[in-house]
Specification:
Layout: H1 2-10, H2 15-19, H3 49-69, E1 78-90, E2 95-106, E3 109-120, E4 127-134, H4 151-154, H5 175-180, E5 184-189, H6 221-237, E6 242-252, H7 254-265, E7 269-275, H8 293-299, H9 322-327, E8 333-339, H10 347-355, H11 358-363, E9 381-382, E10 385-390, H12 398-411
Parallel strand pairs: 4-5, 4-6, 6-7, 7-8, 8-10
Antiparallel strand pairs: 1-2, 2-3, 3-5, 9-10
The structure holds beta-D-galactopyranuronic acid.
């Protein structure tokens, strides 16, 4: 088990080696314009909100499920939530933290996942909530020693292992700032839902369901992670401190991909934030810039449904592109963010996809992104659809969080 955990964690850091063969030459990007998301598979153009919601939107959801992320089971597994620890003086007294164990049961099996919530102590009424996975366990987001290890990390026998060090990803979670601005944060380790490795399925939540275990459209890790975010939302919605109409889902990189898919399917997420999500997330696949469908499906065969690998080195035959995933967020708020040095994730492709959702937002009388010219670094565009590119590498930084909170302040009229 320890070896598997280490191998899985190593996949988080192997970007540079893989990046070498990718195309970074804009001149080699195939000439194409992203398809109008309002045009259906039968060639008809939808012109009303009703037609979009009844015809085109379900058609796109179906295509994305069948060909990219796999079909999410309709059946439910039994889920229980148990408060295992509460600390009214977390973050130096700024917040109350609650650690809640989720137990999923189905097909005679059981899985556990541990969420942690930070709730602002200074609050008038219910607060808006950021929901997002962490990569390295709940113990990695702050050095607070009362935080329990996420079940995935709890199994590591060597308690001196560097992956059990506290606070190693705290720079990605400016908890004090977020709580000071009046937001709650709820996070959980994504590995609790699906261990991020090629043979992770058997230990994931997937075997708890009777359906969608086989075939080209079977759901895999991204589908499972998206499903897990909705189970976090189920809990949040029932909390007396939470404003259930003000839920923002945030995800970085592979978790950005999962957040977009969760946001597309679960309309309780009023704001959907993709931080450097790249290929299979916000970036247009047909540009084949940076990471490609071929690269991603070979490196991470457990992320997408098997059907997606048909488009390896063959992106132009895709019957959709990622802007159509983003368009499914409409009329809710969408934020796509890139980093200048993160060419692997194709910042231009992320921008163009966010921009290409405009016709769908326009149908609702809302302003997406108007210009097809990318804004300069550190000059966010924030309409109903938002975009920024910041200096630096593939990461989640304070700068990113500041923009997300400004955007949510507007969305939630704070
Ligand atoms: C890389 C992968 C990207 C991105 C990233 C991450 O290895 O190629 O698609 O998801 O990992 O999640 O940090």
């Amino acid at each position: 088990m320890r070896i598997l955990v280490t191998v899985a964690l190593l996949t988080l850091f192997c970007v540079p080696a893989m990046a070498q063969e990718a195309n970074y030459d804009e001149a080699k990007v195939p000439a194409f314009t992203p398809a109008d998301p309002l045009v259906c598979a039968d060639g008809k153009h939808v012109n009303t909100i009703k037609e979009w919601e009844r015809k085109r939107r379900p058609e796109l959801l179906g295509l994305l499920a069948e060909q990219e992320y796999g079909r999410t089971p309709k059946g439910r597994v039994k889920t229980s939530y148990e408060l295992v620890q509460e600390n009214p003086q977390a973050l130096g007294g700024l917040a109350t933290s609650q650690q809640v164990m989720l137990t999923f049961k189905g097909q005679g099996q059981e899985r556990k996942a541990l969420l942690i919530a930070f709730i602002p102590n200074q609050r008038k009424g219910r607060v808006p909530v950021f929901i997002g996975y962490n990569f390295m366990g709940n113990h990695s987001i702050t050095s607070d020693s009362t935080i329990l290890y996420s079940p995935y990390f709890e199994q590591i026998a060597d308690k001196e292992s560097p992956v059990l060090k506290r606070g190693i990803q705290s720079s990605r979670w400016p908890l004090e700032d977020i709580v000071r601005r009046g937001y709650a944060v709820v996070t959980m380790c994504y590995q609790d839902i699906f261990p991020d490795r090629a043979d992770g399925t058997s230990e994931s939540i997937i075997p708890l369901f009777p359906e969608n275990q086989d075939g080209d459209s079977r759901w895999q890790a991204l589908g499972a992670w998206a499903w897990g975010s909705s189970r976090i939302a189920d809990w949040v919605q029932r909390q007396p401190w939470a404003n259930a109409r003000q839920l923002a889902i945030i995800g970085h990189s592979r978790q950005g991909k999962a957040a977009l898919w969760a946001g597309a399917q679960d309309e309780r997420f009023q704001v959907v934030i993709s931080n450097n999500s790249g290929c299979g997330g916000a970036a247009l696949s047909k540009r084949a810039y940076g990471e490609t469908v071929g690269r991603i499906t070979r490196s991470f065969p457990h992320w997408f449904c098997p059907a997606f690998s048909r488009y390896a080195e063959n992106e132009q035959t895709l019957p959709f592109d990622q802007h159509e995933l983003l368009a499914l967020i409409a009329p809710r708020r969408l934020y796509v963010a890139s980093a200048e040095e993160d060419r692997w994730a194709d910042p231009r492709g992320e921008f163009l996809a966010a921009q290409a959702t405009a016709p769908v937002y326009a149908l609702y009388g809302l302003k997406g992104i108007e210009s097809i010219d990318m804004p300069p670094v550190h000059q966010p565009i924030q309409n109903q659809v938002a975009y920024h590119i910041r200096a630096g590498k593939h990461d989640v930084t304070d700068y990113d969080w500041q923009q997300y909170m400004d955007f949510c302040d507007k969305a939630f009229e704070k």
